[in-house]
Amino acid sequence: MSNYHIKHLEEYYQIYRKSIREPENFWEEIAEEHFLWRKKWNNVLSWDFSKPEIKWFEGAELNITENCLDRHLATRGDKTAILFEPNNPDETSEHISYRQLYERVNQMAHVLKNQGVKKGDRVCIYVPMIPELAVSILACARIGAIHSVVFAGFSSKALSTRINDSDCKLVITADGSYRGDKTIDLKGIVDEALNDCDSVKSVLVIKRIHSEITMKAGRDFWLQPLLDNAPKDGKAEIMKAEDPLFILYTSGSTGKPKGMVHTTAGYMVYTAYTFKNVFQYKENDVYWCTADIGWITGHSYIVYGPLCNGATTVMFEGVPSYPDFGRFWDIVQKYKITQFYTAPTAIRALAKQGTELIEQYDLSSLKVLGSVGEPINEEAWHWYNDNVGKRKSPIIDSWWQTETGGIMITPLPYVTPTKPTYATLPFIGVQPCIMDENGEELKGNQVDGRLCIKFPWPSIARTIWGNHQRYKDTYFSAYKNMYFTGDGALRDEVGYYRITGRVDDVIIVSGHNLGTAPIEDAINEHPAVSESAIVGFPHDIKGNALYGYVTLKESGESRDHTNLRKEINQIITEHVGPIAKLDKIQFTAGLPKTRSGKIMRRILRKIAEKDTSNLGDISTLLNPECVQDIIDEAL
Ligand code: PRX
Predict the structure, then answer these.
(1) Which CATH number fits domain 510-633: 3.30.980.40, 3.30.300.30, 3.40.50.620, 3.40.50.720?
(2) pLDDT tens digits for 600-629?
(3) Each residue of 222-244: pLDDT tens digit?
(4) Model confidence, pTM
(5) Longest alpha-carbon distance in the chain
(6) Residue 255 Cα to ligand 1 middle (Å)
(7) Distance from residue 410's CA to the centre of ligand 1 (Å)
(8) Of the candidates 362, 376, 373, which has an alpha carbon nearest to the alpha carbon of residue 418?
(9) Closest ligand 1 atom to 291 CA
């Protein structure tokens, strides 16, 4: 039996029990046998959730890129590492071998060094889904710089907030990006963001769409000429196990985004090990995760996890609807994709198209289907199972978070029997539990409450950049000695977990986490707006859509509401990004508040969901009279 590759359910249970009984021995064995270390650890794990402080493989030295690249050169040098499929299907795809990737990463590493980037410096990567994005990430890791990838669909304000929060020294971007039949002026967005960012000394620009852009002398450099002059070989910086590898921002329910910090050794071991098992990856498989690398899914399961396993990983620049809704299936057929990992929102959008298109493609290469990012509803699960997997490919409903670094609760394909809408069983080493609102653990099966994790796993985020107190308050204060996920979950009669959704003010729209506070702050900047509150309501494709309740200052009340709605969405687009636009905006005279002045979102949520039969006791509100008005005028 190999602990590294789990093939049967009994093996899963056996290995799981071992990983819980002797976590240190277990992870030490995995780390020892399957990775390249410059120096082994002195201590496998030390942890204290009350501080919180978590350290894995302390004393070890390594470079993650030697695990992703160097060690494959002898056996897999010519194997395709990254298979790039451009936005436009008529443009030639790129097959980048492990050797070519190694060379490109080294060249990029030299360029970064020549720009003065040193170990520990932060580099912001604002690049679309083109190979240079993966190359930039790996080049940072190669020289020990901390990468902070910002999704290239975010606005200039969102970008500058993230650059400033971690004082990035350099930005890598492109002249622009393709998105279906549109282009996006990325460099223009960067220029605007940098008006507010003093820490940035240089900008490296990739030529992608060949648009006219302005280059600021002394600050902006075209990347290609610099790469052309750089050597294709180079030494990797030796990193300590707990040195930060990257920062990735995620929305919180309040305040500015949280820069989750992931460190090197534990993250590497866990993402590689989960990748191998959750996708049952075999040597000649062609694996495709449709996520953008701007999110954690792309970091862990397009870049690091697959490359650590010497896999072939597909990077797709485009969107599922371009040139038509058959695009995903065309790619599956073209590359004979074996594992396909996507989000429920994409499945719902594709299901809406019916089955005519999908039937034109040969999907017989598929062995494993994955889902991630939000709860998958039963209808979407069955559509996926029937039409994509033809009832032969197990669906891996994988639950995890930016903060967890890797997949936490999931079936293993061909190992764990699946059940629609259930993420099923904890991954090896993961100890979930369900808590009630009073801090008591709900033991046994058939319980419903809040999902926590009792014991550290190797890829848990170690802190929030620059704000350890917030890390403690957000994740380790709700329940003593536990990591609180912010999600609700139930455990069924056989011990399978089902994630029921967020229990805080984070709303997941099309798989993107959106905190209500930054959107409300943006709306409140409109001169006519007095106050606002955002809630989610169910949406066929996006899972949730946003419903905004807005009160106007007196001077704004006479304004044309259609125009105001447009202006509000425009402000949101500028401050947060187009993904946060509101589907519905209701102007109202007042918002229901508690006597301490807190907006009662629970009531607003019910009204948005058109479920006003049981609003609970509203008599204790400061202004109960406004509730009926809001119901009467609801959209
Ligand atoms: O609410 C859960 C939901 O997505 C949140 C994490 O979002 P993010 O940090 O952006 O990471 C997404 C990709 C890992 C979780 O707190 N979520 C994620 N996967 C699932 C899910 N909800 C239900 N089922 C899932 N499989």
Answers:
(1) 3.30.300.30
(2) 888 999 999 999 888 887 877 889 899 999
(3) 999 999 999 999 999 999 999 99
(4) 0.93
(5) 74
(6) 20
(7) 12
(8) 376
(9) 13
